[in-house]
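Methods — Computational structure assignment.
A single polypeptide chain was analysed. Its primary sequence is given first, followed by the predicted tertiary structure written as C-alpha cells.
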Amino acid sequence: MEELFADLHIHSCLSPCGDDEMTPGNILGMAVVKGLDMVAIADHNCARNLPAAAEIAEAYGLLLLPAMEITTREEVHMLGYFPTVEAALDASDILKKHLPPKKNKPSFFGHQSVMDSDDNVIDEEDALLIGATDLPLTACAALVRERGGVPVPAHINRGSNGLLVNLGFMPEEPVFQTVEVWRHLPCPMEPLDHRHVLHSSDAHYLGDIQEREFMLKLPEKSVAAFLDWMRAPKS
C-alpha cells in the first residue's frame, strides 16, 4: 500500500470565484512545494483547464485526478471524479447545455480563464459557470457514473450548497459511498457511517492549498486505484 497525501478539491482560474493566480502551473507548483502526491482540480461545471493541468502534472510527477464541482438543480455542490480528462471534458460539454442561458460577466462574477500548459490564457469561457444546472442530483450523479466516474457530495456540512445544509438529510438515492466533509465545522456522525470521508481545501487562492494533512492508503498511485477506493463499501 502507498501512503499518498492529497488535496482533492482545488479551483483554478476557470472558476469565476478562483483567484486569477490559480493557474494550472501555479496550482501544481504549489502542490509540489507542499509535498502533495495527488491533486484534483475541480472547477465549477467545467473541465476545460484539465488538459493543461494533466500535462503539467505529468512533468512534475504528480497524480492529477480529473474532476469538476457540479451544481445540481437543488443547488447542491457535488464533486465528480473521472477516470480520464476526456471523460471529464465530455461531461463538461453536456453540463454546459444545462447551465443558465446567460453569459458570464467578468466584472461582476470574475474571469473564467482557459489556460495552456505554459499558463497562457487561450480562451475565456463565456457560460455562467457559477450558476446551477437544471439537472437534479440523481441525474448529475448518473452523468458522472456513466463516464466511469464517482460522484461525491461536496462539503456536506458547510454553506448553503452543502448537501446536509441544503436538503437537511442524506438521500437514499442516489447512493454515495464517499462524502466530502469540511473539517473546520461539526458534522453529524450518522451520514458518515459506512462511508469514506474526504477532507480537502476547496482552495480558491494558492496559499489555501492543503498541506500534508489528508492521506490515503492505496494499492498504487493511480486514478483507477483512487476511484476503486471511493466506490468500495466501507466496512
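Note: The two ends are 18 Å apart (CA to CA).
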